[in-house]
Design a protein that fits this description.
This protein has 362 residues and is mainly alpha-helical. The chain contains 8 helices and 3 strands, in the order αααβββααααα.
């Protein structure tokens, strides 16, 4: 059936070029006759001689017939070559090098590329293009008919199983996405708590440094007064200094209690962060049998899984950053404890110096 359509189009192309050639011959003949007769009558009325008129008719007719048939009538070989080229493109569309509405280029037998003229574009647009479009439509219809065959029971069962696996995997991905979102919010909350704990520790550190400076100044003052106590001794001043030292001791005790409470909170937050890190670091999900046949689930599912894995990596990086900050807070806390111990030791030395000087009585 396809061959018969091609032969029919080839016959139409042949008929088109035959009619075109006949039209051009008729036009050339009309022009030659018109010019020859015109020359005959002009010479006859001008010279009133039949002989000169006949000579003018023959001479102009000979010249015009050669000129017209060379310029108006296309060569038969050219028409034949173009016709065969178009018919070859009908049978083998791969010969079409390029095509648009203004220009068509076809490949010849010897590999040469020929550009169709405006005359050839007429037959191409009127006959060849509709044939190619119809041919493509027929091929697409045949392919759809072949593709729409009836599936067997086993094939339907397998497709249904694969569909169920895909649905189950999509549900798992949705649940995992919700879980990751909840973990992200929890990590953000833990991060805020750790930031607040850092601020508290920094404030405590500043207070301890200030208290350390005050105690150092007090120690210097006390040492100076101990040196002067042998000469002058004022009980009121001694009591005032004793009250001031007791207040500083109470303040240091309170600071120790606050630091101990902060340490408990930090330890609790660190343990919670470790548990959260373990939960975040778990595998995205277990796909079971579907993972063994992942290639059949489609590229979209693979892209979703890759997105989940990337998000898990970001969550792990965030958890590591939070853990580093928690370690920094722990180190700061240990440094504060060491400074408090040093302050306690200095305080004991000051108290012992006051007792030895008689300024303070326990």
């Amino acid at each position: 059936m396809q061959a018969s359509k091609t032969e029919k189009i080839e016959k139409l192309v042949l008929r088109f070029y035959d009619r075109h050639s006949a039209k051009r011959v008729a036009l050339a003949t009309f022009i030659v006759g018109f010019l020859s007769l015109g020359a005959f009558f002009i010479v006859f009325f001008w010279l009133e001689s039949v002989l000169f008129a006949a000579l003018a008719f023959l001479l102009l007719g000979f010249i015009s017939i050669n000129v017209c048939f060379l310029t108006i009538v296309p060569p038969a070989n050219s028409l034949k070559a173009t016709r065969e080229l178009i018919c070859a493109a009908l049978r083998d569309p791969s010969r079409i090098v390029s095509y648009d509405k203004q220009k068509v280029r076809l490949k010849g037998e010897k590999g040469t590329v020929v550009t169709l003229t405006s005359r050839d574009m007429t037959v191409w647009n009127d006959l060849v293009v509709p044939y190619i479009i119809a041919n493509k439509a027929d091929v697409g219809a045949q392919q759809s008919e072949r593709a729409s065959r009836v599936l067997t029971a086993s094939e339907r069962k397998y497709i249904e199983q694969r569909r169920e696996e895909v649905i189950e995997l999509e549900k798992t991905i949705a649940e995992e996405r919700k879980s990751i979102e909840m973990d992200r919010k929890e990590i953000e909350a833990r991060t805020a708590d750790l930031n607040q704990a850092e601020e508290v520790v920094i404030t405590r550190l500043n207070n301890v440094e200030q208290a350390e400076a005050e105690l150092e100044q007090l120690r210097i003052t006390t040492s100076e007064r101990v040196d002067q106590s042998a000469q002058t001794y004022d009980p009121a001043i001694a009591k005032a200094r004793e009250a001031e030292l007791q207040a500083k001791e109470a303040e240091l005790v309170k600071m120790r209690e606050c630091l101990a409470e902060d340490r408990k909170n930090l330890e609790l937050q660190q343990s919670q962060m470790k548990q959260l890190k373990k939960s975040v670091s778990r595998p995205p999900f277990a796909v079971g049998k579907a993972s063994g046949e992942g290639a059949a689930l489609g590229q979209s599912l693979e892209e979703r899984e890759a997105a989940l894995e990337a998000r898990m990596k970001r969550m792990e990086a965030l958890a590591r950053e939070i853990e580093e900050r928690a370690n920094f807070v722990t180190e700061s806390e240990n440094s504060l404890i060491e400074r408090l111990d040093a302050l306690s030791h200095r305080e004991a030395n000051i108290e012992q110096g006051e007792i030895n000087a008689g300024i303070r009585q326990d």
